[in-house]
Amino acid sequence: MPEKMKNFYTYLLENNILCNTCNMNGTTLISKLMNILAGQCNSLDAEDAAKEVEKREALFSTVIAPGLAVPHARISSIDKPLVAMACCPDGIDFHGQNVKIIVLLLTPIAEPNLHLQLMAALAKDFSEENAISQVAKSATPSDVLTYFKNQEVVMVDYLTAKEVMRENVITLYDTDTLLQAINSFSSSPAEEFPVIDKNGNLKGIVSLTDLLRHCLPENMLWMEDLSSIYKMQPFAEMLKNACTTKISEIMNQDFITVSEDVPAVQLAKLFLTDGIRCLVVINKDGKLSGIVKLKEFCAKFFWE
Question: Can you give the pTM of this predicted structure?
């Protein structure tokens, strides 16, 4: 028999919700929420769990949207998710940011899929404009649960590319110049950018490797003796024409795309079988939706 569909609030007990919290910082509030969960789960060591939460916060901010923080950790001693929430209508300081809602999420270390399912459902629950402020003003825990129930956001059965992709992607236009691409690379840690046309249609990918390949065409790569270009003349020539060379001339048009609804495990297979480090995700209209980078994909399942 198939498992009954679940929502985020399935794991959020009314007694685990604090309303109208004020006059405390994020660290103090997390400690308060952690003690609530420890009181309900004998196997949870509040001090050790708090350290795990702090470790993740040191690696990356858990403020996933303006006003919403989701400090979390994967704990070996628990066998089901534990969730607690604090609503702060006026906002509190959370590691230098003002947040109105804190959701403490602890999941079993061996349940990476469930962890990401919960994170995805939570993000959808708060996706509507002013949702964070609305919930933060809830007078009672019952009001908070009523909000979630009215949202009717069902947790996905399995993760797809849409749940693990990065939506905010830097793009270049096919009419941009090589110089513009160089400037974009210099100001971003990215090693490749999707290239679109003026209508938003995906045209190709341009990477740092493409820049090097443009400097050293294939015939040069077969040369054993490169002494004739020790002074990097091909690079100088490329830079000389960088203002007039179009991205469309050097971009790679042979790349792999996946649709938003492709199962996440399929992405793992592509990373391994095709030896690529970045997958482009497209929506039902064939336009760019996001990207999935190998390291970010692994981070979601192994340590975030």
Answer: 0.77
